[in-house]
User: Fold this.
Amino acid sequence: MNFQKTLIAPSILACDFSRLGTEVERLTAAGADWIHCDVMDGHFVDNISFGPAFVEAASRHTKQPLDVHLMIERPDHYFPRFSEFSSSISVHVEAPHDVKKTLTGIRQAGCLAGLALSPPTPISAIEPFLGHFDILLVMTVNPGFGGQAFMPEMLEKVQTGKEWREEKGLEFHIEVDGGVGPATAELSRQAGANVMVAGTSVFKAKNAATEIAALH
Assistant:
């Protein structure tokens, strides 16, 4: 894995759902490296976004990797419904499931396996699963809704993840999600993150390509 290259993953949660295909094509043309898909079930988080059919529809409008983030209960039960058209699937360490078994299943399905943690959760919660995931997803806002302010104190988790990766000779991306713009992306990169999920800042920008270039 190349951790030196910064990857920008616009979140379609911030797009115009009525123009999904056009929006995905627009962000692909603007330079998006990944397309991030925030799946919410109204149980694990207090919001409902979209499901497998919506993500599959998005996949038909880009050749870029689809990065699926399951903010749901029982991700072990639902991830197979996304694996056919996803490049990576991240699940939460806080959700009720056998975390190691779920991560193994995602890898066996041919996807990168991601492990996410919410702001209240200490980084120590993911330590038992080091070596079993390909992406460490650090939430820099409370999961559930877009447009929140970046929580800089979460960068300590990013730094710890980077240190563990180096100390143990592991390979995994470090991804940040929430309140990401050019300034917070720079702080995140300095802390050790290389994948930036950006929603509102990209989709609401006057020029998406300029915004993605700034994030890079």
